[in-house]
Amino acid sequence: MRKRIITSVQQETLSPDQNWLNLEGLAEVEITSEDASHPIESALLPGRDSGWRAAGPGKQTIRLLFANPQSLRQIWLNFVETHIERTQEYVLRWSPDGGQSFQEIVRQQWNFSPQAATCETEEHRVELPAVTVLELTIIPDISGGDAFASLAQLRLA
User: What is the top-level taxon of the source organism (predicted)?
Assistant: First the structure.
């Protein structure tokens, strides 16, 4: 019998220092609300630690409007919830025509639990050739509770 030992295959993960798009120079941001102590820049720009948080409970939208169409290969999201048990849903959509029409990329739910699952990190590999608008909608608690939407980080490549 012939046999061979193989090494386990490591999944490729995104590193924090990857060549992310410079969103500050490429996009204008529209948001439904923000807590003054947790502005959207804290989730979109490297080197910021506090992340974004909504000013009130309920559904929130973050929209990136690109001055020039962008080609996207990766969308990396990080959500953190350490206090409240809840089921969050988020939807990512993109538009090639300045927001006249949208195509859904992903719709996903996650159960946060302070005792077990406090962090959700998602990497979406995409082939989007000419993005003019990227929209993230967050429903922080699908049961209708008073949870506040938050986003620790959003990175694009």
Answer: Bacteria
